DNA sequence: GTCTATATGGAGATAGAC
DNA sequence: GTCTATCTCCATATAGAC
């Protein structure tokens, strides 16, 4: 795989529309059957096209994978970043809202989250090592995790939270939410906004109660 | 892949010794490079052997995968089952001890946990659908998750825990611990029993505090 | 920009010697 | 029970027509 192919291609806005459709199809296929078990032809089937179309936008299967992960992380950052950077919220309220938004995003874009969130490290070892796109993704993930560590640290400083290891507790909270892609599956009949809200707030409450002093 | 090959073979205790070595190697290789990116030759390299040896014990690559997952779940059940079935513990104490033991096992056998815990569903879609071994694994996982749901329900009934959705909160707890395979990596220098204990109790405390009334 | 047709390389799996 | 040698297939990726 060559250097930074994903990023350079995605500069062109025209390309992004076709590419987005393809990423949606790939995310769906990968999340249903797994990365290894899904062929490019499978993705093409989901698209209702042939693989010629896919290879017009993505050089390799690994690039599809990176593209999915990248978008997934971007969505999470969009979900929690604005809240994380507000200065007017007490740590407990900020944390609750971050988890809530994070959880809602996990449900809204679940196909992107299942594949990306965690297979990335292990698969990239064999797929897209040290590309520029990879660096960017790792940078985003670090930032996203730092948001969690930061709010926990703040709460401990102000005395709102118990005195514990902020990094470890942040991992626990991240795990609880990221793990959603293992068990959450959209369900046409029961999947109302109210249901999503209930799930998100339940998870948020558990995370916050786990650390308040 | 044929029906129930793993289980029938593992009846023979002689076989298990050779098989165990191979599973260790495969678990290590898969956890480092990912299932898709790891070839049978890679696993053989870790073993210091050739793939002839591997195929003497396992019919397919998917069987290796199932074997790893199965053992991982068995370890977790061994870790939490005895505690979960004690009648003399208050829900909060029982839950804390379950999470603690679960977390310790995640660290002790981390190579088995990373691969198995969650890739199973998606990979098996393409590898070993509805085999007897698969059924057994799903049964064990259900039991293991039920232990968590049960203790939460008990705590809510006795009033020790907040009144919330036991299934959802159990998912959150399971996620926090299972997620360890994403971030935990053994470290020769810092990896003391005390360090493991500290990590396990921190996670256990967060899980319990998150739900106590 | 999307298709059909094709190449090719690599990995899973097997046969049979030792 | 483990090895070497080999087969076979199929998924990735490409070439080139439309």
From TrEMBL, chains A, B:
<dbReference type="InterPro" id="IPR009057">
    <property type="entry name" value="Homeodomain-like_sf"/>
</dbReference>
<feature type="domain" description="HTH tetR-type">
    <location>
        <begin position="16"/>
        <end position="76"/>
    </location>
</feature>
<feature type="DNA-binding region" description="H-T-H motif">
    <location>
        <begin position="39"/>
        <end position="58"/>
    </location>
</feature>
<keyword id="KW-0804">Transcription</keyword>
<dbReference type="InterPro" id="IPR001647">
    <property type="entry name" value="HTH_TetR"/>
</dbReference>
<keyword id="KW-0805">Transcription regulation</keyword>
<dbReference type="GO" id="GO:0003700">
    <property type="term" value="F:DNA-binding transcription factor activity"/>
</dbReference>
<protein>
    <submittedName>
        <fullName>AcrR family transcriptional regulator</fullName>
    </submittedName>
</protein>
<dbReference type="InterPro" id="IPR023772">
    <property type="entry name" value="DNA-bd_HTH_TetR-type_CS"/>
</dbReference>
<dbReference type="InterPro" id="IPR041490">
    <property type="entry name" value="KstR2_TetR_C"/>
</dbReference>
<dbReference type="InterPro" id="IPR050109">
    <property type="entry name" value="HTH-type_TetR-like_transc_reg"/>
</dbReference>
<dbReference type="GO" id="GO:0000976">
    <property type="term" value="F:transcription cis-regulatory region binding"/>
</dbReference>
<keyword id="KW-0678">Repressor</keyword>
<dbReference type="Pfam" id="PF17932">
    <property type="entry name" value="TetR_C_24"/>
</dbReference>
<dbReference type="InterPro" id="IPR036271">
    <property type="entry name" value="Tet_transcr_reg_TetR-rel_C_sf"/>
</dbReference>
<dbReference type="Pfam" id="PF00440">
    <property type="entry name" value="TetR_N"/>
</dbReference>
<keyword id="KW-0238">DNA-binding</keyword>
């Amino acid at each position: 795989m060559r250097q930074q192919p994903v990023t350079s291609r995605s500069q062109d806005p025209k390309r992004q529309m076709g590419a987005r459709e393809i990423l949606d199809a790939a995310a769906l296929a990968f999340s249903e059957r797994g990365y290894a078990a899904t062929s490019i032809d499978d993705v093409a089937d989901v698209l209702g096209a042939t693989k010629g179309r896919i290879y017009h936008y993505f050089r390799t299967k690994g690039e599809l994978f990176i593209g999915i992960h990248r978008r997934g992380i971007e969505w999470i950052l969009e979900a929690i970043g604005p809240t994380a950077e507000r200065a007017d919220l007490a740590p407990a309220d900020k944390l609750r809202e971050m988890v809530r938004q994070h959880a809602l995003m996990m449900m809204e874009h679940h196909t992107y989250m299942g594949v990306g969130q965690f297979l990335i490290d292990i698969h990239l070892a064999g797929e897209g090592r040290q590309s520029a796109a990879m660096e960017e993704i790792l940078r985003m993930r670090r930032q996203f995790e730092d948001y969690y560590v930061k709010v926990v640290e703040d709460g401990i400083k102000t005395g709102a939270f118990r005195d514990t290891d902020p990094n470890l507790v942040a991992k626990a909270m991240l795990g609880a939410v990221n793990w959603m892609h293992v068990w959450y599956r959209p369900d046409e009949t029961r999947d109302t906004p109210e249901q999503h809200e209930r799930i998100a707030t339940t998870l948020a409450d558990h995370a916050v109660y786990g650390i308040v002093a």
